[in-house]
């Protein structure tokens, strides 16, 4: 009926007007937020899907980062972040779990993790390299070639123990074959002369 159509049209216009008003209000809030110096992020009240999408759009236009959090539709809310305070994955995870983000606590946790890693590294170094020269070829090169290859390399070195772990090539005679042969012949001649 015509009245129904008129009522529908009135409702649609009202909705449209509400959206426009809501957007204006969000634009004001966002611009206040941008000017608030000590405020890196702002959490907005829970909103419905349409309102959230309007707020996300306003934030994007203003050059801000925004995310929605909250599991059920009624309690979902938007958080807006200034670009230089864009949230880390860790921070986002906290909000997703419904927790408050405490940067000081997170920094402390990060420092503890770093410390633990450093300690572990130090312990590894202490246990694997005794002070002084490495006494075992395997240990010396394990970090370069892995332990299996190191064992194999150590085996080839065992045979060479007399040289004190210097590759054979370094101990090789540097004289040319000709020089060596001449020397052998000379010694031979000397012996023959002595025998006669």
UniProtKB/TrEMBL annotation:
Positions of the UniProt region annotated as Disordered: 116-139
Domain of life: Eukaryota
InterPro entries registered for this protein in UniProt: R3H_dom (IPR001374), R3H_dom_sf (IPR036867), R3H_sperm-antigen (IPR034068), SPAG7 (IPR017330)
SUPFAM superfamilies given in the database record: R3H domain (SSF82708)
PROSITE patterns in alphabetical order: R3H
SMART domains named in the record: R3H
One Gene Ontology term of the molecular function aspect: nucleic acid binding
Residue ranges constituting the R3H domain according to the UniProt record: 20-83
Protein name: SPAG7 protein
Organism: Poecile atricapillus
Lineage: Eukaryota, Metazoa, Chordata, Craniata, Vertebrata
